[in-house]
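User: For my dataset I need records formatted as: sequence, then structure tokens, nothing else. Please produce one.
Assistant:
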Amino acid sequence: FFLTVTDISAVDQGLWSNWKSDLLRQLFLKLEDQIKRPNRRVSLNEKIEKIRKNILAKSKLITTSKLDRISKITYPNYWLLQSEKMILFQIENFFLKKEKSFNFIIKKTENDLFYELIIMTKDKPQFFLNLISIFVLEELSIFEARIFTLDDGTVIDTLKFSFDENKSFNEIDIQRVLSSTENKLKQLGQGKNFEIVDYSKRKSPLLRSKVEVNIDNKSS
């Protein structure tokens, strides 16, 4: 763990980020847990069933019948590639309130430097492209994405993002960008498409000046 931190930091201080720190920390803790408390090999179904039981125990809103209905349209990756806390949040805030055809929530993570967009809607052509276009237009950096398409054509995506570290944003700037992002997402839900401008196609003035290049092989 320490060697990895030192190695990355020694190359360039800008390469070591809170996101990499969080990922490496999770890996360290999982490995430590396996070494101290090695578990027998369990099947995917056993792992999923354990997650389901934990979610039922933690929630006052989710019933066994409701969870069974959700399980019928989800695939194993939905349960295994997310934290129980996130699955619980998605079920209570999206699956149990599925009267909307397009719904999203932006919330701050436990790490104050990151935010999460959780969005649920029916899949349609270029949906993900439009979603990424909004992030590009708002100059937001995506650090992690969990993309799930369910058996009934529903998509539920969770994207962890942050603001440009080079910009000294205060709380007012952050709220302005978040509000602008929310407005664009609402427009996306109403059918608007977002395109990223290809600046490479714009004509740029050429600098016409003579340049001399000297190659000195003796010095090398």
